[in-house]
Design brief:
This protein has about 260 residues and is α/β, with parallel strands linked by helices. Strands 1-4-7-10-15-18-21 form a 7-stranded parallel sheet, with no helix packed on it. A 6-stranded parallel sheet has the order 3-6-9-12-17-20, with no helix packed on it. The protein has 3 helices and 24 strands. The chain has helices at about 20-40, 240-250, 250-260, and strands at about 55, 60-65, 70, 75-80, 85, 90, 105-110, 115, 120, 125-130, 135, 140, 145, 160, 165, 170, 175-180, 185, 190, 195, 200, 205, 210-220, 220-225. The longest helix is centred in the first third of the chain and has 22 residues, at about 20-40. The chain has a single domain (about 20-150, about 160-215), classed as 3 Solenoid (UDP N-Acetylglucosamine Acyltransferase, domain 1), CATH 2.160.10.10. InterPro entries: Hexapep (IPR001451), Hexapep_transf_CS (IPR018357), Hexapeptide_acetyltransf (IPR051159), Trimer_LpxA-like_sf (IPR011004). Pfam families: Hexapep (PF00132). One of its GO terms (cellular component) is cytosol. Belongs to the transferase hexapeptide repeat family.
Length: about 260
């Protein structure tokens, strides 16, 4: 016979837990603290490069742990104050242990941020200018498969390679793909999921697959089409961090009253 049901209002006993709540919290805290220590210790910097021998790595640049695939480091040059997120792949050459000559193959300028899970595949020259920010899972490659021979598997055909250049100050959105031969200008926004090939002019926004210019700035006309939202108001000079914290704690009505000019 099935066990009798508990009557309404009766308390059903909870299953016994091996760990009490306080023991579980201690174990959880220990696990998180240990993983944080592993991340700090495993990260790569100029002072602590580990097994990696980059062509150059600037001060305050850090590659987060765990790293993605990294090889061809002697031909990879990283600028100063770069942030390379977890699981980012950086490669120079088709495979490890190749002699690629005297010049850098993959070069990052100062202040570059590569988001988690991004890939930069430099079988021939890839240059990323200073102050470029990449969202997560961006894919940049200087190599594409060829399919000229219809009788040969595509993976066995010799690939085509073209240099890639990304100008300074760009923002590359999540999941964007930068194809061989791309020449992206200065201060360009690449929308999430865009597939970029060819030349992209300075001060433009591109979106789509293949990516097309959807907005551009020129000295004569400004942004065309015009921006739909007003530009952010910069923080005035001389404002301290404590003042900003105090302002953030004000309710909306008080903040609006303070912002109104005096009569």
């Amino acid at each position: 016979m099935a066990a009798p049901r508990a009557e309404y209002g009766e308390r059903v006993p909870k299953p016994w837990n091996t760990f009490s709540s306080w023991r579980r919290r201690l174990v959880q805290r220990a696990v998180h603290s240990g993983w944080a220590w592993v991340q700090r210790t495993g990260s790569v910097t100029a002072e602590h490069p580990g097994r990696f021998r980059f062509g150059s790595i600037g001060p305050a640049t850090r590659l987060a742990f765990p790293l993605g695939t990294v090889f061809g480091e002697p031909w990879i040059h990283l600028g100063a104050h770069c942030i390379v997120g977890e699981q980012v792949t950086l490669t120079a050459g088709l495979m490890p242990d190749l002699d690629l000559g005297p010049d850098p193959i993959l070069r990052l300028g100062d202040g570059v941020v590569l988001g988690r899970g991004s890939h930069v595949i430099a079988d021939t020259t890839v240059t990323i200018g200073s102050d470029c920010y990449f969202g997560p899972y961006v894919y940049v490659t200087s190599t594409n498969h060829s399919y000229d021979d219809p009788h040969e598997p595509i993976g066995k055909q010799w690939p085509r390679m073209e240099p890639v250049e990304i100008g300074p100050g760009c923002w590359i959105g999540t999941g964007a793909v930068i194809l061989p031969g791309a020449r992206i200008g200065r201060n360009v926004v690449v929308a999430a999921g865009a597939v970029v090939r060819g030349t992209v002019p300075d001060h433009s926004v591109v979106a789509g697959a293949p990516a097309k210019v959807v907005r551009r700035w020129t000295p004569a006309e400004g942004w065309q089409p015009p921006l739909r939202t007003p530009a952010p108001v910069p923080i005035p000079d001389g404002v301290t961090s404590d003042q900003l914290v105090a302002l953030s704690e004000l309710d909306e009505e008080t903040a609006a009253a303070l912002a109104r000019p005096e009569p």
